[in-house]
């Protein structure tokens, strides 16, 4: 992912949203059972951050940084925002796209267009 972002013609800022699986308030006994077995549930954003490519090294380092916040997460979604004229977008400039991503997640929208990884750094496909 980092290599692909580095190959873009304009500098990139990556948006990260870390999600945890929760059992919805309105759930059936079957959904509760499946959730207790590690299946199903609803994804909700718990941590978000943005980083320029110069601020990132490895998945392990990013996961360690997030672990310091002591918030459990199951899935990490990543999106990129391109800069202009050779300048990396600032955190303020990507606040809108980050809010759109979080809103999409909270509303149960389609997140299959985003790159997703589990806690072990393995890519996940939604769809």
Structural summary, described in words:
- There is one protein chain.
- With about 130 residues, this protein is of the alpha+beta class.
- The chain has one domain (about 1-125).
- It is built from 4 helices and 5 strands; from the N terminus they run αβαβαβαββ.
- Strands 2-1-3-4-5 form a 5-stranded antiparallel sheet, with helices on one face.
- Strand 4 (about 115-120) and strand 5 form a beta hairpin.
- The chain is elongated, with a radius of gyration of 16 Å.
- The model has no long low-confidence stretch (mean pLDDT about 90).
Topology:
Layout: H1 2-6, E1 12-22, H2 29-36, E2 42-52, H3 59-67, E3 75-82, H4 95-106, E4 115-118, E5 123-124
Antiparallel strand pairs: 1-2, 1-3, 3-4, 4-5
Quick structural overview:
The chain is α+β, with helices and mostly antiparallel strands.
Output the radius of gyration.
16 Å
- Summarize the biggest pleated sheet: 5 strands, antiparallel
Overall morphology: elongated
Record field, number of beta strands = 5
Helix content: 25-40%
Please, how many domains?
1
Q: What is the N-to-C succession of helices and strands?
A: HEHEHEHEE
Write down the overall mean pLDDT.
Answer: 89
Unreliable runs, pLDDT <50, ≥5 residues? none
Q: What portion of the residues fall into strands of 2 or more residues?
A: 25-35%
Question: Count of helices?
Answer: 4
Strand order of the largest sheet: 2-1-3-4-5
What is the SS-derived class?
alpha+beta
Distance between the termini: 20 Å
Oligomer: single chain
Features:
27% helix, 5-stranded antiparallel beta sheet, 127 residues, alpha+beta, elongated
């Amino acid at each position: 992912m980092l290599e692909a972002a580095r190959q873009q013609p304009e500098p990139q800022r990556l948006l990260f949203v870390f999600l945890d699986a929760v059992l919805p308030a309105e759930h059936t006994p079957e959904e509760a059972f499946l959730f207790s077995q590690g299946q199903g549930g609803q994804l909700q954003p718990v941590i978000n951050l943005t980083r320029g490519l110069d601020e990132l090294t490895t998945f392990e380092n990013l996961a360690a940084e997030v672990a310091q916040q002591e918030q459990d997460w199951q899935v990490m979604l990543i999106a990129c925002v391109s800069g202009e004229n050779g300048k990396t977008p600032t955190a303020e400039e990507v606040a809108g796209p980050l809010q759109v991503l979080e809103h999409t997640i909270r509303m149960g929208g389609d997140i299959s267009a985003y790159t997703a990884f589990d806690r072990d750094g393995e890519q996940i496909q939604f769809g």
